[in-house]
Amino acid sequence: MQGRLDITPSRPRRVRIADVAAEIGITKGTVSRALNGHPDIADGTRARVRRVAQRMGYVPLGTAQAIRTGRCRAIGLVLETEEHDAHRPFLTDFLAGLSQGAAAEAWTLTVATAPLGASLDTYRRLLDERKVDGFVLPRTRRDDPRVAMLRAVDTPFVLFGGHGDPDGCAWFDVDGAAAMRAAAILLARRGHRRIAYVGGHPDYTYSALREEGLRDGMRSAGLDLPEAMIRRGALDRADGAAAAGSLLDAATPPTALVYALDRAALGAWRAARDRGLVIGRDLAVLGYDGDPEGLHAEPPLATWAVDWHRAGARLADLLIRRVRGEPPETLRETMPATFLDRGSASCGAGASPNADRGAAAAESPESTGRNDS
Questions:
Q1: CA distances from 118 to 19, 76, 79, 113 (A)
Q2: Which of 27, 39, 116, 292 could form a cystine bridge with 80, CB 3.0-4.6 A?
Q3: Which residues sit opposite 78 in a β-bridge?
């Protein structure tokens, strides 16, 4: 009987740690520790091992590695779906940065959603199901229950922002306080003496920091920020319009408005239009976040832009290093925001905003397609 010829292609043999070790001429243990980021391996050796492993096509067996190390090589992010910026345009850049930062270390990003104020159960579920090794915590609060819970279960985390109790916290932050300080000084140099502040939700750490930054800048310019010139809790256009309206209707109104959030700042156009004012001529407006919608205002919104992609990448790197055992005190970074000096802040302090109520109305951000910066 004629034998049957088996033409089934053989699967290529998987590259093992032993193969990488033999290629470099070091022990398997050293290769394993280098690939897993152990701090006792020299940076040069770690880089060489990863380079050779990548060239040879080495891929760790995820299940076996999780059993051996107790890690699943995944960073976690829980988005509260009703949070005021949960669906903002910059979220795409932020997630891309997190994903790329994780991928650089052959880790993955796990994203979950939860109702606003009810996210702790989601954090616990992800931990119980061993789906993540640690968490990035966005939009930190001064008294943050997520921090308390993760501390209690000894789970690594990195804050995107500050916290009222920094003990044992790693973080990455954008220096919003410095941006607000610079905004006050810029407006003062342009002749403004009555500068008002419209803050975000007071529970969030960023809101207090940005307010204090503006105060500090105004003090440097010899100016005060009285409570009558402050509104808080503005999270969207409607809030921003209401805040601007109440400020502009005062007996001595501001000549400049500084907002903690671009989304709220865009509401100032409605308030100005309703009062016969033109932003960039009768009233200066500055925001913060770099929201792309600010480009479509007329004039475009001056703002402090954040590199959301870089922020995500840095947070991923810091969290992975924290999971690997680096102390949180060594994992604290801050980067500056970038000022986009656009038309809404171009005016100096001329006539009172209450003057000439019959002037041409300001165009609203919704009514123009202008797209220049």
A1: 48, 16, 11, 10
A2: 116
A3: 112
Length of the chain in terms of residues written: 373
Q: Is the pLDDT of residue 86 over 70?
A: no
Alpha carbon distance 360, 343 (integer Å)? 17
* Residue (of 358, 339, 352, 234) closest to 294 by Cα position: 339
343 neighbors 302 (Cβ within 8 angstroms):
yes
Q: In the β-sheet with 338-340, what is the strand arrangement from edge to edge? A: 230-231, 195-198, 256-259, 284-289, 302-305, 338-340
Q: Beta strands 108-114 and 157-160: pairing type?
A: unpaired
287 and 211 in a common domain: yes
The tokens describing 186, both together, are: 């810029």
The answer to whether position 228 is within a domain reads yes
pLDDT of the residue at 57: 81
Work out the average pLDDT over 307-333.
96
**pTM for the full predicted model:** 0.75
CA-CA-CA-CA dihedral for 275, 278, 282, 283, to nearest 10: 90
Report, in angstroms and rounded to the nearest whole number, the Rg of the chain calculated over CA atoms.
Answer: 26
pLDDT in tens, 219-270: 999 999 999 999 999 999 999 999 999 999 999 999 999 999 999 999 999 9
**Domain CATH for 85:** 3.40.50.2300
